[in-house]
Structures are given as C-alpha cells and as structure tokens.
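Intended use. Records like the one below are meant for learning the mapping from a protein sequence to its folded structure. Do not use them to infer anything beyond what is encoded.
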Amino acid sequence: MTTKITVEANVSAPVSEVWRAYTTPEDIKQWNAASPDWHTTAATVDLREGGVFSSRMEAKDGSMGFDFAGTYTRIVPNQLIEYAFGERNAKVEFIDQGAAGVLVRVSFDPENEFPLEQQRGGWQAILDNFARHVQARR
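Structure written out for the chain above:
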C-alpha cells in the first residue's frame, strides 16, 4: 500500500478539551464534515480497544451519504487513538504543546478510488472544522 497521508492542525485549547471534542458523539456531529454542504447526522463511540465507532455522513440535500465506521485498536487517553476501518488503518496523535495548544496529527492509509490530494484535502478540511469547533467553544 502507498505511504500514509498525514494532516494536522493546531488547536488552541487544553488537551483534555481537545480529546473530549474528538471523542464525544454530540461534538463529532458538529465538526465532522469536509464541506458546508455535508453534515454528520449520527455518531457512536465506544472508546476502548476493541470498541467500535460510526459516523453517518450525508449531503445536506439528501442526495448521498455513507457510514464511516471502524474499530479502535489502541487508546492512550489524551495522547493517541489508533483504529482500523475496513482494510485501512489510522492514527490520531494529540501532542500537548503547553501554552501553544495541542497539535492534532492524523495519519491514515489512503484508498485507491480517489486521488491522494483529494483525500488529503478532505481529511484536512474535517480537521480544520474540528479545530474551529473546539476554539469556538472557548
């Protein structure tokens, strides 16, 4: 498989707030979209190794939707989430930078259907939405 794609964003908030917003279904429904014409209508999280998660992502006009789901393979509270989704894997690192906030770095195995830059752009847009969501709550 190709090299992993990595996206990152700095979030100006304490790591405990960043972690909570990343792992709480009500928060996930507010930030988990790559563009304004999409939204997440449902999210479930069983945050433990072997636990499953799912987010239902849909176009706001109802024209299409899909479930993004997987299984957590490693959890280190406030530091790391690793998960498998289908035949692919992802890692989310929460790097506490003190007064500078938290660097959230997501690395994932790309899929073969869409160009790498399109995948990177979509995941980066979601992560940017996440950072804005957390910072807006402060």
